[in-house]
Amino acid sequence: MRWREHVVESGRVRQMWHLLEPLHALLYYAPEAFDEAAALGYDTGERWPSYFAWRAAPLGAASADRVTSAFYSFSPAMAARYVPAAWDTARPAEVLAARLRAVDRTYRTVLGDDVVTGPELAEAAALARRAAEAAGAHGRPLAAANADLPWSEAPHLVLWQAATVLREHRGDGHLAALLVAGLDPVESLVSFAAIGAAPEAVFESRGWSPAEWSAARERLAARGLVHPDGSATDVGRALRAEVERRTDELAAAPWTALGPADTARLADLLGTPWLAVIGSGLLPAENTLGIGKV
In the structure, how many helices (H) and strands (E) does the chain have? Predict the structure, then answer.
């Protein structure tokens, strides 16, 4: 019975990630966000200049090395193309203010004013904030940086910030799980592609060269984790399953603190905004997170 309870809890933890991740990720794809980024002076011909600015701004005027360390899966060369040049375009405080304007505009467009100002979203925001404030930030640099920002009075912005804290909390824990598994940044992507989380072409967005990707595959093959064709061995699949199990375990604290009843209530409340975001067509169908695949 205790084993079954653990499985149900792990499933709930993962469900909350799946519900909240799209609410956060809209920032990186919405036209309103690109408008705000362009107003700051960022090149919006591709999404990466604004992505690095939006996501790294809570860290302050961080160096490329610090951003590479926190983001983990991006190649150092790619991070160096955008950071610290991002802070020459706009100061982190300016980016953070524009980030909230972008979320405000995007949520009003995608969710509609009736949902944004409605009582159910306000209730969801209050519950999500409780979970975010209970997350804990020790050893979690991106979660800590976002948790340290002031909370807005607008419920839809509270919901977005809580979603952001919670997804970065999970992400920081995921990096710890990868380190324990002995997977360096590029190996983490190669091993994830190997289990079919997404096509290898999707992972090219992280900036690793073909030579770096091939070398990582060879290292994993030497450990018995992938076959010569790049597909995962049974041992490789087991290792990735352990990484995901450990990630869920490290992400459980906010939901344990919120409690099963309020967590279930939040999951119900998130249904309407989640469907609106997914239905907007703004988010890519395939992603490097492997949502829906593992």
Answer: 18, 0
Q: How far apart, in whole angstroms, are the C-alpha atoms of residue 90 and residue 15?
A: 36
Average pLDDT, the chain: 94
Q: Which amino acid is located at 45 in the chain?
A: G
Residues in a beta bridge with 226: 232
Q: In terms of C-beta density within 10 A (0-12 exposed, 13-18 middle, 19 or more buried), how is residue 151 classed?
A: middle
> In a 10 Å sphere around its CB, with 0-12 CB exposed, 13-18 middle and 19+ buried, how is residue 229 labelled?
exposed
Q: What is the pLDDT of residues 45-70, one digit of tens each?
A: 999 999 999 999 999 999 999 999 99
Q: What is the pLDDT of residues 69-93, one digit of tens each?
A: 999 999 999 999 999 999 999 999 9
> Model's pTM, two decimal places?
0.93
Residues in a beta bridge with 232: 226
Q: Is the peptide bond before 84 cis (omega within 30 degrees of 0)?
A: yes
